[in-house]
Amino acid sequence: MAATTLTAATLADLPADVPGPTYDRSAVSVGIVHFGVGGFHRAHQAMYVDQLMRRGQALDWGICGVGVLESDKRMAEVTEAQDDLYTLVLKHADGRREAQVIGSIVDYLYAPDDPDAVLDRMTDPATRIVSLTVTEGGYHKSASTGEFDDRDPAIQADIAADAGTPPRTTFGYIVEALRRRRDDGTGPFTVMSCDNIQGNGHVAHAMITAYARRKDPELADWIEGNVPFPNSMVDRITPRTTDEDREELEASTGIVDAWPVVCEPFSQWVLEDRFAAGRPPFEDVGVQVVEDVEPYELMKLRLLNASHQAIAYLGYLAGYRYAHEVAGDELFAGFTRAYMDREATPTLAPVPGVDLDDYKATLIERFANPEIRDTLARLAAESSDRIPTWLVPVIRINLENDGEVERSALIVAAWARYAEGVDEQGEPIEVVDTGRAEDRIAAARRYPDEPLAFLADRDLFGDLVDDERFTSAYRAHLDALHERGARATVTELEGRLPR
Fold first, then answer.
1. Rg of the chain in Å (alpha carbons)
2. Residue 27: phi, psi to the nearest 5?
3. Whether pLDDT at 115 is above 70
4. Between vectors from CA 396 to CA 392 and to CA 402, what angle results, nearest 5°?
């Protein structure tokens, strides 16, 4: 099969079974500026916009991607070389592949190279939405206090900078663009977070406004009164693209794509309908546009995301390296489902239109998809941003209501054991936890002399270390993980707890 490098000029050469854009991309104008163009954005929001465009809709809602980090430079190079096109590959559990070329991203700007171009794009009246996938840490929210954390040197520099200094951070660009739009009468854009955090719109609102208040209190007041920050719940398992993915795409389709995206077939987006200057008709392509996102997001964070942490730590310690391996193991799958049923579900309110039993069964099936090959290392990364949001609230609610906490205690203990940086086979673990890895490793390695050292970080766990019922379970599980290993610990626990 002849190889075809993906560009606008080669769209006509795509294989018949790989659909490309059916719309005229030259007629697409930018309506959305997006910070944080990675795999998830391209598998999710950009895909939904592309679906609308294939229906002849939303051609004035094209996406301009923006990168502000050094690591974004590679994306800038790839998007320039490929005319912003990329291949999205859905991996079905039975081995089938569905590939399509996505064209809804029509521009990409690497901010350090041309900050004025970014601000010009953001202040253009045609830009009505600025969206974000900048990960939990990108919001600069203190895990312990919930307040704005300004310790990042780049944030400090942007706050202190005068009007003529180009911004360095996402917050810096958003607030400066809003200042200019206020001053020239253009009006606000909507800030739409698509990150996997609880109350993502509320968090974006609180942190960006707090940043603005440090820099310009009057502008902060204007943002408070005029800029919408809708909440959303987003869901699609999207592992990192590997060289094997690139090679498989070329071998099966002939397409040479430097950065394709692979993901599961399942996708969900629940979006609060609150926008300053309109939005694409997302509901026409399956987005659930609702008045209140919270029931959906709590369902997802406490069932899917917290369960991902469970299989990540325990599975890795037991010798597995991929999510589907752990989810395909009856013991660990049973533990995960029991956590969902016995500890997570009691903390949830009814979710409109969702059968929770079906949802939980589907989660286990999704985790077990062998074609996704989602690594446990990816799931276990950045745990200091994730556990306080996904699992600690479950623990707190159950402690307050005399609910079960044993399985949650084991998940936290497994994180502590994982954070020691050595698995049960004596092999090293690369602990990825930006800004916290050294502290987490050091605390974990204070076991057994200080068995609660890991749990004593109040920035992450609050006062859980003071609760005797939780610490008793945590210590027992941590001891068992060291003495008998993950499999034996889960086996013993599941043998004595109700299911």
1. 23
2. -95, 0
3. yes
4. 140
Q: How far is CA 109 from CA 59, 66, 157, 208, 460, in A?
A: 20, 5, 21, 21, 35
Cβ count within 10 A of residue 147: 12
Torsion of CA 85, 87, 88, 94, to 10 degrees: 170
Question: What tens digit of pLDDT does each residue of 414-457 get?
Answer: 999 999 999 999 999 999 998 899 999 999 999 999 999 999 99
Q: Write down the H helix ranges in 185-266.
A: 200-215, 217-226, 243-253
Residue 305 to residues 237, 262, 320, 391, 451, Cα–Cα distance (Å): 10, 19, 19, 9, 26
CB atoms within 10 A of CB 170: 26
Q: What is the identity of the amino acid at 169?
A: T
The answer to whether 227 touches 189, Cβ cutoff 8 Å, is: yes
Please name every residue paired with 33 in a beta bridge, in sequence order, or none if there are none.
Answer: 64, 130
Which class for 487: exposed (0-12), middle (13-18), buried (19 or more C-beta within 10 A)? middle
Q: In what order do the strands lie in the sheet with 261-263?
A: 97-102, 86-91, 261-263
Instruction: Tell me if residue 97 falls in helix, strand or coil.
Output: strand
Q: Note whether 253 and 18 are within 8 A (CB).
A: yes
Mean pLDDT, the chain, integer:
96
* CA-based torsion, 351, 347, 333, 437: positive or negative: positive
Task: Give the pLDDT confidence of 309-355 residue by residue, as tens digits.
Answer: 999 999 999 999 999 999 999 999 999 999 999 999 999 999 998 99
Q: Which residues of 338-353 are buried (b: 16+ CB within 10 A; e: fewer)?
A: bbbbbbbbebbeebee
DSSP H or E segment with residue 74? helix 73-81
- Can you tell me the distance from the alpha carbon of 223 to that of 357, in angstroms, rounded to the nearest whole number? 41
Q: For 394, phi and psi rounded to 5 degrees?
A: -60, -45
Q: How many residues does this entry show for the chain? A: 499
Whether the Cβ atoms of residue 329 and residue 364 lie closer than 8 Å to each other:
no
Give dist(CA 232, CA 244) in Å, integer.
32
Determine the pLDDT at residue 1. 65
Q: What CA dihedral angle connects 339, 344, 350 and 353, to 10 degrees?
A: -50
C-alpha angle with apex 181: 166 to 34, nearest 5 degrees? 65
Contact residues for 274 (Cβ-Cβ < 8 A; gap 6+) = 190, 201, 228, 229, 230
> Mind listing the pLDDT tens digit for each residue in 346-385?
999 999 989 999 999 999 999 999 999 999 999 999 999 8
Closest CA to 317 of 402, 215, 416, 408: 416
